Amino acid sequence: MTCQLFAVCFDASQPLRLAQFWAGVLGREVVEDAGGALLPGEDTQLGLRFVPGRAEKVGQNRMHLHLTSAGPADQQHTVAAALRLGASHLDVGQRPEEGHVVLADPEGNEFCVIESGNNFLAGCGFLGEVACDGTREVGLFWSAALGWPLVWDQDQETAIQSPQGGTKVAWGGPPVAPKEGRNRQRFDLTPPVHGDQLSEVDRLVSLGATRLEVGADGAVLLADPDGNEFCVLTPR
Mind listing the domains of the chain with CATH numbers? Predict the structure, then answer.
């Protein structure tokens, strides 16, 4: 068995405040979690985790969330709710004819509310996609790491999805912006139910990851082939 994608983890200056924002947007409950806050996921919807971190935001994040819409009114409702909870509109160079709405959460993390009728995200659920900057190589790495099949592989762009369906993870291909400092968002993995953490770390390194450090809580920090940090947590 392979590791599980437990959550997308956000470094935050106010983890509980940011968790409450996303709980309001997604309609989830906040659970205390190892010094931070967690919005538990489901089989087909990724969890979100928020932990203390003071890394300065430099440029756009290398990953951002895409929320889906059932129709124009639903998209407007999601945008209005997010703004009411503390989001703000954001200009990242999107064209007027593009149907998605780009917002920033209270700590400046970009996310998009996608227009209805997006066939690529049909059936993926409300948290439809984690959209990442990255090469095809890193998409292939994560497919092997998680055991999630490729559902898109064209023109250096890749996407993977759990065999159960739900949230997709996609990489836009080159050019990839230079990495400046530690990413403020990353994937948190848990070892297989009947596996152990160190064996899973060894497997990920054999696939192309690089060991970085071991945290005080025992979590092992690694980097994927594009240099993006991710954690293998202790068994839960």
Answer: 4-232 (3.10.180.10)
